[in-house]
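Handover notes (outgoing to incoming on-call)

Open items:
1. Peptide deformylase: sequence verified, structure written out, both below. Nothing else pending on this one.
2. Nothing else urgent.
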Amino acid sequence: MPVREILQLGNPILWEHSAPIEDVFAEDTLAVIRDLDETLADFHRTHGFGRAIAAPQIGYLKRILFVRMQPTGFCGALINPIITSASDEQIELWDDCFSFPDLLVKVKRAKEIEVAYLDQRNQPQIIHAEGDFSELLQHEIDHLDGILSIQRAISSTSFSTRQEWERAEKANNRSVKARL
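Peptide deformylase structure tokens:
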């Protein structure tokens, strides 16, 4: 169960479409799920954030995500996930990605979605996600289709370094508190 290197922006694998998993119980499928789990845990430990990772980010072009909502919430692999419905209502937020951790991108995503997938026992599941969880699943499923959040940017000015975003957020919070 090694921690795998996370591919970074510019690696052509990140732009490729992932193939469906044919056998949930195949040894390579099980190994990738373990690697995703370990890599996600390691990234969270070392960076202080991170809730999900897609198989293409570790160089495996198959339709698998691993999600761990911290500290409680959904945890596990989603195999062959597909968005089956999405609300017309959208949310706007700053999105980040392990493949470019110092860059944030302002995107719009569906506020609510439903995702059909297979779990690790090869059982069909449906999950309803709202808000941040909805955005997270859309982001990760995009990875499986070779789509990065930079392609979903609201405009050409919808980019920020993490450092600048944190500085602006700190300043905004100070000014809100000062007005109260």
